[in-house]
Amino acid sequence: MQAESSSPSGYTERVVPFVAGDGRSLNLHHIRGAQEPTKGPVMLVHGAGVRAGIFRAPVSRTVVDALVDDGYDVWLENWRASIDVEPSAWTLDQAAVHDHPKAIETIVRETGRDEVKAIIHCQGSTSFMLSAMAGLVPQVKVILSNAVSLHPVVPRSARLKAFYAVPVVSKLTPYLDPQWGLHAEGFTAKALTLLVKATHHECDNTVCRLASFTYGTGFPTLWRHENLNPETHEWLKHEFAKVPLTFFQQMAECLRAGHLVPVEGYRELPEDVAERPPETDARFIFLAGELNRCFLPESQRRTYERLSQHRPGYHALHVIPDYGHLDIFMGQDAARDVFPLILAELNKPA
Fold first, then answer.
1. Which of 41, 61, 72, 331 keeps 20 to 30 A from 32, CA to CA?
2. Is the full-model pTM beyond 0.90?
3. A GO molecular function for this record (predicted)?
4. Residue 181 burial (CB count, 10 A)
């Protein structure tokens, strides 16, 4: 069943359900402008513990606006890491094998187009990159990745946290949840919230501070406060929720290895999937905020250099000054500083 509505921006928006390969109920938000799109479909993939709407912060012009205005047929995926679906102990492997390929198949079926472009962020990027490297999304010909892809690199303090704190915390709670900043229940939730309040003094938004604690060791981790308008800083209180410790455990393994590591033994994902030649002819564009404290820009540089060994001069890397992690999309000036670059790369001829 597809629900359709009109947004204040004049867009038509419908929710298109799809079923992941393992039977999970997921969905896509299909957004169209007043005019018929003149270009093909582009799918946006969010990170961990947020939702498809993270690309539509209360700024004057979102990346969705920019894409629609440029003629694209826009699709936002809610994969199993979304806070709009039932929480689960997910891994990157599950999303790579079960979620993203079915989402792309749904877009191809709904649009009748046999090629799709993708904009992928953070753990939406890592999981989608596994899909692409394994040849599971052959319809996707252009992939624009933000923050991290095949080679996660984090600050030293975040590595120590992943190696030593995650095993302890995973025995106390199955999830970390920035919503504890609004309402914490139980000893572990209350104790971790008190810890964050005692150590994070960068703002008075406890959800923002808990998000920084959840995703790394920055003050803040996910953005530069200077890049967020007050409305976005308030809005994000309700845009971050549960992230399972199964994900953080897998990321710790990836950090040890220096590249993404499948952990569930799916035959579709060989153990060396992140290091073997890609089973895709897609062109990759890698974005990194120069001041990203969640994943360092070196993350994207390593993947760019790795893939460029196979196709020199084909892919692209852009390190964006004065930006961090999610403010690449949510920043109040991202429409001026970032979106023209995104459009230019998406519009380059094959």
1. 331
2. yes
3. oxidoreductase activity
4. 20
